[in-house]
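ok so i was messing around last nite and threw this chain in just to see what happens. nothing serious, just curious
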Amino acid sequence: MTSILPHIALESGPNPAYSIIWLHGLGADGEDFVPIAEEIDLPVTVRYIFPHAPMRPVTINNGYVMPAWYDILVGAASAEISANIGRQEDAAGIRASQAEIEKLITQEKQRGIKAGNIFLAGFSQGGAVALHTGLRHQERLGGILALSTYLPLPSTTPAEASVEAKHTPIFMAHGLSDPVIPYAFGRASADVLLHQGYLLEWHGYDMPHSVCPEEIRDIEHWLRTRLAAGT
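result:
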């Protein structure tokens, strides 16, 4: 039997027809976004999957072992991150996490959830993996929520992205005063995807590297719109 990442599973009611796989940020775990999901009121029954990232040493944190979707190979300064992401990335780690999320997508399909009813969501490093995986998935997903994050391995996206992903709606949001992943860098990632023809909606908020109530309401509205459109 194929091993699946340890995860928290919550269902908003019986017989869910939709699944949202939500990835936490660096150093957190699956519990991190459970309270956020519980604030989102949707008109359908949803199964939330909150996977725990594997434990691994992280170069940016002096090799300290922590939950991480991939290694971060650059220094801690925001300017250095902006200058090096896309050039000094842990491609093997990103692709390994992509494979793990694909297993979770497969699991949901085997449970009877259509690909168009599966959403990928993630914050920071988790958002990067959600974007990377969703753009390469061979079927159109219900949508991708990429929060306070960026597009990883951008030079590989045009060649590796699936044709169907061009029809997958994307919600990207970022804090205007984010000290970890600068707002301008997140916005630049969104602009790259918009230029490539993706269906992307951008939001900026007066917050640091975090989530705010206004953002949660916008996420709820976006999800409700996707559900009403029959994604």
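not much to say yet. Helices lie at 34-39, 78-84, 91-110, 125-136, 157-160, 183-195, 213-228.
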